[in-house]
């Protein structure tokens, strides 16, 4: 199918997603002619660079080749996705692993299972940025200062705390101010905070438009190539639909393999993520895993426990789906 046609299909899928918002609209139990328990999946996704493999799988017909009809539903993050997974409004959803592990420990009604890794941090994908004329030049300088983060007690604060510890710097919860990533540039400019924990493409954008300076690359040391996010379902859905989950995993793996070519990712980002081609060509990229690695994922709950995000040790293998 021509790319333009594929993009039309993608646009249609997104339009369907808008129509599904707020409705309990899981795929249902429609059996598949090719042996899958169900051919229809409702997938929670986000319009960020991290989900490029999903868009590529849709655009290039990789889900279709596995006999899947995947309906995309845009979510803002784990706080929205987890209740929808619990209710069955979503079959599988993209989300960050800190939210997922937190929910698995603190929400007794939620039994998540990770079906695929989604995104690993890379050099300068997660940074601490200050104003061009800021007097601060290192993470040590930010102790006791206000730092903008997307969400407290989540992946962004965890990466800041992990970067500070080797320098002897500790941060209190009150040091962090919640700011949506698209608003961080304005927060920095207005001096409502002294620094922001920027993710891409916002870090690159504020460097180009504001002259913001990076004072710490948070994807380094204990959080180098850190598992940021992935795709999860519920124990119930995986148990009832192992062949369907396996088909999803195969399609996503093929898409992730294509993402090894950065040009493929650069080309798809402007089609769904509100990232223009110029920024897409200069921003920093992480990587898209093609395997589900328990040892790598274990770094997430271990670091969360070290910084008091969870009280108990979590064996991440208990959260990994065993599909067909």
Automatic annotation (TrEMBL):
Residues 40-275 form the Solute-binding protein family 3/N-terminal domain. Residues 1-23 form the signal peptide. The keyword Manganese does not apply. It comes from the Bacteria. Belongs to the bacterial solute-binding protein SsuA/TauA family. Keywords: Signal. Gene3D superfamilies: Periplasmic binding protein-like II. InterPro entries: Solute-binding_3/MltF_N (IPR001638), SsuA/THI5 (IPR015168). It is found in: Periplasm. It comes from Actinomadura algeriensis. This is NitT/TauT family transport system substrate-binding protein.
């Amino acid at each position: 199918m021509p790319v333009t046609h594929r993009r039309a299909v993608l646009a249609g899928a997104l339009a369907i997603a808008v129509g599904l918002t707020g409705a309990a609209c899981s795929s249902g139990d429609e059996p598949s002619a090719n042996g899958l328990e169900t051919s229809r999946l409702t997938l929670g996704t986000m319009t960020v660079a991290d989900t490029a493999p999903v868009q590529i799988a849709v655009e290039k017909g990789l889900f279709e080749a596995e006999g899947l009809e995947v309906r995309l539903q845009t979510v803002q993050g784990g706080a929205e996705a987890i209740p929808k997974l619990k209710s069955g409004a979503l079959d599988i959803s993209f989300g960050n692993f800190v939210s997922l592990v937190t929910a698995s420990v603190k929400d007794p009604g939620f039994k998540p299972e990770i079906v695929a890794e989604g995104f690993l941090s890379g050099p300068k994908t997660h940074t601490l940025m200050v104003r061009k004329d800021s007097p601060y030049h290192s993470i040590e300088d930010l102790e006791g200062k206000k730092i903008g983060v997307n969400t407290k007690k989540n992946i962004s604060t965890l990466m800041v705390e992990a970067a500070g510890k080797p320098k002897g710097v500790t941060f209190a919860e009150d040091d962090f101010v919640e700011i949506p990533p698209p608003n961080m540039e304005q927060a920095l400019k207005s001096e409502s905070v002294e620094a922001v924990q920027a993710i891409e493409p916002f870090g690159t954008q504020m460097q180009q438009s504001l002259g913001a300076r990076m004072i710490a690359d948070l994807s380094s040391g204990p959080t180098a190539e850190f598992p940021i996010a992935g795709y999860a379902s519920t124990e119930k859905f995986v148990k009832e639909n192992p062949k369907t989950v396996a088909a999803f995993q195969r399609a996503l793996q093929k898409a992730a393999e294509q993402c090894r070519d950065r040009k493929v990712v650069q080309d798809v980002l402007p089609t769904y993520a509100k990232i223009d081609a110029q920024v897409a060509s200069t921003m920093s990229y992480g990587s898209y895993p093609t395997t589900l690695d328990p040892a790598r994922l274990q770094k997430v709950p271990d670091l969360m426990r070290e910084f008091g995000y969870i009280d108990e040790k979590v064996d991440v293998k208990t959260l990994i789906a065993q599909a067909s």
